[in-house]
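2024-03-11 09:14:02 DEBUG pipeline.ingest accepted 1 chain
2024-03-11 09:14:02 DEBUG pipeline.ingest length=298
2024-03-11 09:14:03 DEBUG pipeline.predict start
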Amino acid sequence: MANRDSPPNPVYPLSDRNQPPPGLVALLRTRELIDPAVNFEVLYGGRTNRVWKVLSGKNDAVLKLYCASFQNPLFRNDARLEAECLRALNSSGFVPNLRATGSFGNDSWVYYDHAPGAPWRDGVECVALLLRKLHQIPVDLDLPDGCNGSDDLDRHARQILASCQSQEQKSLLAMQPQGHIPPLSDQCLIHGDPVAGNILQSPDGLTLIDWQCPALGDPCEDLAMFLSPAMQQLYRGAPLSEADMAQFLAAYDCPKVTERYLTLRPWFAWRMAAYCLWRIENGSPDYAPGYELEVAAL
């Protein structure tokens, strides 16, 4: 799971961190969603929300308990949006099947089928085809707007940098890209966070998980997030090569979008560098290599 930021304190102190809160377990049993003898296994990687694999001996599931108290300046964390997207895309073949959703205290939870596979590692063409398919699906959902055009990306990067205090903030502000790329009129459903950790690869194909920050926006945002050197470094240990990036853009097979992405690439790199700096200042030094990669991309 690709949720990146941990709240300062656990949402629910437990005697056994491998188990969901007892009250939530009781709620799921009351709704006949789990059996009395079910077991739970912590799914690591997501640190904003708490996630467990539900082991039933038959069809395993995933239980995600959202933390509503922690705000991320780049990645929204909305349980309602995840549930609505899973419902809308149920027939697509590339999202988990949603079983149920609800609230627990001040937080929300979603419960869906466990998707087989491991986080994506290689083979950029299949990811390009997946995102192209997603961006062509018409949906009627109440979604927030994504960043659309260079002015939006400029404002977003500056908002993130406004929360930074280190000397690098001034240096990064001086690297602001120049020029103007207008908004795109034909917007579509975008995942918002299609990084390697959110793409599960199995012999049956790819599954796109963690739908908590979708938007109606520019498909270039999804392309930029997947191709981001910082995100590839974080989840795979190395950025993609220029050959891999060219192969991905060719496989996406929509010159109008891919050419637009290339013109917007400096703004995406600038915003991601700002985000990496914010993460470093908030206790995540593992973002330092990504910061350097995004600055180099500028």
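2024-03-11 09:14:41 DEBUG pipeline.report The beta strands are 39-42, 50-55, 61-65, 98-104, 107-113, 118-119, 188-190, 199-202, 205-208, 215-217.
2024-03-11 09:14:41 DEBUG pipeline.predict end
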